[in-house]
Design brief:
With 275 residues, the chain is mainly α. 71% of the residues lie in helices and 0% in strands.
Amino acid sequence: MTRGPSLTFWIGAVLSLSFVAAALLSFLWTPYDVEALEIANRLKTPSVAHPFGTDHFGRDILSMIMVGARTSIAVALVAVGIGMGLGVPLGLWAAARKGGLVDEVIMRGNDLVFAFPSLVIAILITAVFGASALNAIIAIGIFNIPVFARLTRGAALSLWQREFILAARVAGKGAARISAEHILPNILNLLIVQGTIQFSLGILAEAGLSYVGLGAQPPLPSWGRMLADAQTMVSFAPHLALIPGLAIVLMVLGLNLMGDGLRDWLDPRIRVARA
């Protein structure tokens, strides 16, 4: 009998989907306009009118958290999509050409990208094109490509000597067709779990880039920039840093718990060990 997802997965899913729901809702409604400045209401503590208080410009923090969730999720989601969209085919190609020139070039290219963290890549990109959410997506996406390429190559190599792959080769199928029809479906579970983990890391990377001014630019709210704006006011308005910091922690925690739950659910070896 196949067990369903664990409690860990459901806790992570509830946390993550709560922020996704808030981000989607922000397209239609927020308690207040995030671009409206109300200096008379600046630095208000949490109240009925403003559940999370207001910032130094009088903007409602709850509204900014909702729109900031939209920014963080969009940046991380697109960046992971870039990483998977380019990294997985490269990993499959390298595995199919193991030991050849293609494999060597792809793997050494991965090593080169790994030598530069996403923050350094972002600095290089923004030095040329300027700081923006788009450039943050490109920087994080570039860093995700070798992650998925290495993972895909390693998982694919373990399958290329299996009997069903040898049978497909005897049947006359080429390397590209075998990779698409036989290799990829058998490693898809692993890629989904890794995608969830990279999504959480993307949230952290976006917050870090925005914190140093390389991510989403004003007036678009961002959790990282909210933390940066609050750092000089923590002593008399701690809620300015506490709320966005807690949002980042809960979102990342939820995605990591969901990833762990997916791994436990989709990996047959773990299911057998726990049965």
